[in-house]
Amino acid sequence: MPYFRFWAEQIIEADSEEEAETIFNDDCTGFAAECEKWPRSRLEPDYELYNLVSQNAQAVAEEELSRKLTEEELAVVEHKLEDYIDWSEAMALCIQHEL
């Protein structure tokens, strides 16, 4: 997990505003140092090749259901989406067709 994501999660999960501020102040230099590494190399093992955001799911829901998804429905999509996508096959097809 990239440092900045871990750092943000720690702030979000803090028990109080004071604890969040302490985490922010203590870790700010580490976060800044991590950001200086950008752009990152695609050869790094944790480099994201592709991602989806809730806006992608909402656009499909509007096409399929003629409405936006609720918070609870988005949570279901978030946790179940990987069950419906064969990432290995998708990558294999891309490599075969594009390289």
Largest sheet: none
Element-by-element helix/strand order: HHHHH
Indicate the overall shape.
flat
Rg from Cα: 18 Å
In helices, the fraction of residues equals 55-70%
How many beta-strand runs? 0
Low-confidence region ranges: none
Number of helices in the DSSP assignment: 5
**Cα end-to-end separation:** 29 Å
Strand content: under 5%
Q: Please, how many domains?
A: 2
User: Given the helix and strand composition, which structural class is it?
Assistant: mainly alpha
Mean pLDDT: 83
Question: What attributes characterize this protein structure?
Answer:
99 residues; mainly alpha; 2 domains; 5 helices; 64% helix; flat
Quick overview of this protein structure:
This protein has 99 residues and is an all-alpha fold. It contains 5 helices and no strands. It folds into 2 domains: 1-48, no CATH class; 54-98.
Structure report:
This protein has 99 residues and is mostly helical. Helix content is 64%, strand content 0%. It is flat, with a radius of gyration of 18 Å. The mean pLDDT is 83.
Question: Layout of SSEs?
Answer:
Blueprint: H1 3-12, H2 17-35, H3 54-65, H4 71-80, H5 87-98
